[in-house]
Design goal:
This protein has 237 residues and is mainly beta. Helices cover 0% and strands 48% of the residues. The chain starts with 20 loop residues before the first strand and ends in an 8-residue tail after the last strand.
């Protein structure tokens, strides 16, 4: 007897994200369990059991906004049964629209995360990066802004936002409760040219800088910036 089906063009997204984004791909579910083992008197395993099943997935969206500013999801939000752990947005000078990947998890035994059950974190750049019709923005508010007189220019940018998630197990080894702390944002930018401190402004912590010469292309410069955010007032604990 045959089982299963063959499907084409069937990915769907059960989660909600802000307007200006359309679902593109993803939703492959990876399911994992924790294995507990006991040793016998001879030092070899004599018994084992599986517990705490958890699923993870990622959803990919494409920007459909034509004006205004980009809106982003809040890490810590529970939507469609999934807890949003983090998101990443990528812009590229050879790419028409921004692409956003949203990483999520859910618990498949014990207490599932319910809506409004966890702290949420509003990205500080939410609504502050102007939508571009093609390529990469040059102004990321206080995270990074290219000087108007700079000769160097943006090649690509990657903005991410996440929070630390803690899960506690119940007496039978499955999910009891979860909570979030320490929201964090990072911005990685790559530029064509050897950038100097006069070429840009940033109020975030500059955690790394790299300059890469080339014998077949222009020198490039990369920066990594980091910024931490507090949880939304009134969200969970």
């Amino acid at each position: 007897m045959a089982h299963g089906t063959i499907e084409f063009f069937g990915p769907t997204s059960p989660i909600s994200v802000p307007s200006g984004w359309t679902f593109q791909d993803g939703g492959a579910i990876s399911s994992n369990k924790t294995r507990a083992a006991e040793l016998g008197s001879d030092g070899d395993e004599s018994a084992s059991a599986l517990h705490d099943p958890k699923s993870t997935t990622a959803f990919i969206y494409r920007s459909t906004a034509t004006s205004g500013n980009y809106a982003f999801p809040k890490p810590g939000t529970v939507t469609g049964g999934w807890h949003i752990d983090s998101f990443r947005v990528v812009w590229d000078r050879q790419q028409k629209d921004a692409k956003m990947t949203v990483n999520c998890h859910r618990h498949d035994a014990g207490t599932a995360h319910a809506a409004n059950s966890c702290r949420t974190y509003t990205p500080s750049l939410d609504g502050k990066i102007a939508v571009v019709a093609f390529g990469c923005p040059v102004d990321f508010d206080d995270a990074f802004a290219l000087d108007d007189e700079a000769v160097v220019d943006l090649r690509s940018a990657e903005y991410s936002c996440s929070c630390q998630h803690i899960d506690e197990l119940d007496h039978s080894g499955n999910e009891l409760a979860g909570e979030n702390h320490d929201g964090a944002e990072t911005l990685h930018v790559e530029l064509t040219g050897a950038a100097t401190s006069d070429d840009y402004a940033s109020e975030w912590d500059e955690v790394s800088k790299g300059v890469t010469p080339s014998n077949s292309a222009a020198t490039s410069t990369s920066f990594d910036f980091e910024h931490h955010i507090a949880h939304d007032t009134g969200s969970s604990n």
